[in-house]
Amino acid sequence: MFSLTQRFQVVSNQAITFSLVIIAFVVASSWIQLLYPSNVFQNTTSAIANVTPSMTLRTSRYYGSQNGKPKENVRVSFDLESDFSPLFNWNTKQIFVYLTANYNSSGSINEVTFWDDIITSKDKALVQLKNAKSKYTVWDLESGLSGKELDFKLHWNIQPWVGPLVYGETDISGDHKLTVEARKKNTESGDAEKVSKRKKKRTKKQKVN
Which pTM value belongs to this model? Predict the structure, then answer.
């Protein structure tokens, strides 16, 4: 006769085995749905237009400044349209989408993120943005973004109920490349003067308080 402990171990092992089989089936079937009848890794498209950069000088270390030296910070406005509904199946919990830009700096390729969003259901999978503002302001760690060519890409990340994360990017169309105009010297000096004046005002207020 088997003891109670042995019976419990047998039942537990069988339950774990069946669970692993079910998980493997769910993961495999969800991957098949991503590949057939239409391969979402190749056929998910997006269109971006009217990308307009705006640049400011920041002296806070939270915006890349070092030793109080003004740092170029760039934000963008843009139009974006994409349909992520083919990425949803019975194992999709939510989809994380994010807009990045690549640029060359000191012989290496850098990537920065301007905007992101979380899509929680298939009903919200159609993204249509008009004159949207980037969520984040970005800066280059070394010099600045003036004169740099930005190549925009829209990435997606499927977060499933069961299984590993699935990554991909859309086949983007439209004006997804732009060059950040170099700042004029007189503009730079004017901005530097404004920054200096603001710092002096803050110092005076601190002394008064």
Answer: 0.78
